[in-house]
Design goal:
The longest helix has 49 residues, at 74-122. The protein starts with 10 loop residues before the first helix and ends in a 17-residue tail after the last helix. By secondary structure, it is mainly alpha-helical. Helices cover 74% and strands 0% of the residues.
Length: 139
């Protein structure tokens, strides 16, 4: 991933930075999608930060491109629109996968909670089931 945007005003360098930012964002989205599909959810909390950084970098590159070059190259502008469309479509797919995984995990949690309530129902100390009564002759 690109970590620093160079300060050169060369149009081709700026275009290559935009291309690299798009490629890095797409690769990250693909990596997260594969990990989500495989159930590798160990680093999900870091994904948001990683995605925010990649998005900010892409945004900075596009803003610099607009400020420094404007829309002088309509072919490149059209290519950027297509890339953005592709990234948005990939984001929608990833969002759908995340929603499905959240529903799946939520169902498992509800099932575990119901099971816990059932187990607690069998526990005589819980007060929910009748306890055996012992009577003493010594009273």
């Amino acid at each position: 991933m690109i970590s620093v945007i160079s300060t050169q005003k060369d149009g081709e360098t700026l275009k290559s930075q935009v291309l690299e930012a798009f490629e890095a964002f797409a690769a990250m989205t693909e990596k997260h999608g594969r990990a989500l599909a495989a159930g590798e959810l160990k680093y999900v909390s870091h994904w948001c930060d990683e995605r925010d950084k990649a998005f900010r970098l892409l945004q900075q590159c596009l803003e610099r491109l607009e400020v420094e070059q404007g829309y002088k190259d309509p072919a490149f502008a059209e290519m950027v629109r297509q890339w953005l469309g592709t990234l948005i479509d990939e984001e929608k797919v990833l969002h759908q996968q995340v929603s499905e995984k959240q529903e799946f995990i939520g169902g498992k949690i509800r099932s575990l909670r119901r099971g816990k309530k059932v187990i607690m129902g069998y526990n005589p100390a819980s007060g929910q089931s009748p306890r055996p009564r012992f009577f003493s002759n010594r009273t």
